Amino acid sequence: MSAPKIKAPRGTFDVLGQDAARRTTLEARARAILEAAGYERIETPVFEATELFARGVGESTDIVRKEMFTLEDQAGRSLTLRPEGTAPVCRAYVEHGMHKRRQPVKLWYLSSFFRHERAQAGRYRQFWQVGAEALGSEDPALDAELITLLTRLLADLGVRGLRLRLASLGSLDSRREYRERLQAHLRANEADLAQEVRERIELNPLRAFDSDHPGTRQVMESAPRLSEHLDAQDAAHFAEVRELLDAAGVAYELDHTLVRGLDYYTRTVFEFTSDALGAQSGVGGGGRYDGLVQQLGGPPTPGIGWAAGIERILLAGEQEGEQGHGVPVASVPLELFLALEDASPTLRTRAFHLLCEARAAGLAAQMDLGGRSLKGQLSHANALGARYVAILGEQETMLKDMQAGDQESLASDAVVHAVLRGHTAL
Ligand code: AMP
Hints:
Elements: H1 17-36, E1 40-41, E2 47-49, H2 50-56, H3 62-67, E3 70-72, E4 78-81, H4 86-95, E5 105-114, E6 126-135, H5 140-156, E7 162-168, H6 172-188, H7 195-199, H8 214-221, H9 232-247, E8 253-254, E9 266-274, E10 282-288, H10 292-295, E11 303-309, H11 310-316, E12 336-340, H12 345-360, E13 365-367, H13 374-383, E14 388-392, E15 397-401, E16 407-410, H14 415-425
Parallel strand pairs: 1-5, 7-8, 12-13, 12-14
Antiparallel strand pairs: 2-4, 3-4, 5-6, 6-11, 7-9, 9-10, 10-11, 14-15, 15-16
The protein binds adenosine monophosphate.
Adenosine monophosphate (AMP) binds next to strand 6, strand 10, strand 11 and helix 11.
């Protein structure tokens, strides 16, 4: 009787084959674009103290209210699988005293995140994001830089039907007065609001703009607009961000209903969607979070960042075989395949030694590991697209040039050199 099969948990998936190759390409493009702009790679732990997200992301958010994978360790401490990347980066900034470094500190990541959401196409419980964060400057040029970098990355990866929406939420101070006005409007129309929105009038009234409940949408049409209540400094900051984006030729739409789902945002917020995606059309987004570092116990430090979903980028990107701006899928061409005339242990040892030597010399090399006959090995080498095949025998070694179709007999310790020479001759 065979044992029952075990499946991957709901909302998770395996990364295989072509999908893995496309992710490798994506990561290489992200690294090239972000590191050229001065962003340094950061990796934070997969789990953090639950408190980090409760305080950082905010008690009123969907993430903290219902989407966290939280566990208790043996000592009774509450830990949570990271649902997003900004709070951990800010924690690391404080923990490593990065405010003492030259500001802004610019960081990027490509990591997996975890949210207990209803799984569907484009929405998973473990998903990957590429993200960039810049801490320690409130210069509007930093907002424009980050938005421009994400625009470039998405275009470079061939994401189709892109739209960028932009808004300013104002600073925490200027928002306070607006919040009260909005709360008054919501209370006056409470009967028409969705239950969820009603529950958040005190905690986070702005989220009402996010609701797709028909009654709530109607109420929001006559709601006071934050854009009309920005103070002079916030309005000037936002005007400069827009001017810089115009100068960079980045197209955007102003959307004063854009609030984003996280509590920490201030001033500039933005979101990219793709018409090539279905219901889950968000590709990436972000904004300023000028109060977050301080809220996490650090010195007052402005910050801004974005995150984009890898699965959504791939879904909305050019499909296999289509012509894109992107680099072709990464795969390493096989330069040398070592085939064995027979299965004798001494021959295998010699072949293995040669394999290590070839790899140490920088060649992409493989040998037969499937117990195949010589004929089987040659057809395997062919299927792998090997440029050269060395056939090792007790008496002699034959090196075949699979492209030119010729072959020569040589000492086995001359194989690596011959392949390298063949390459430089190409
Ligand atoms: P957020 O951190 O919620 O602002 O999300 C940023 C981006 O991450 C979104 O635009 C999506 O592309 C992606 N994303 C967020 N949640 C998920 C999820 N559950 N599954 C797949 N991608 C997601």
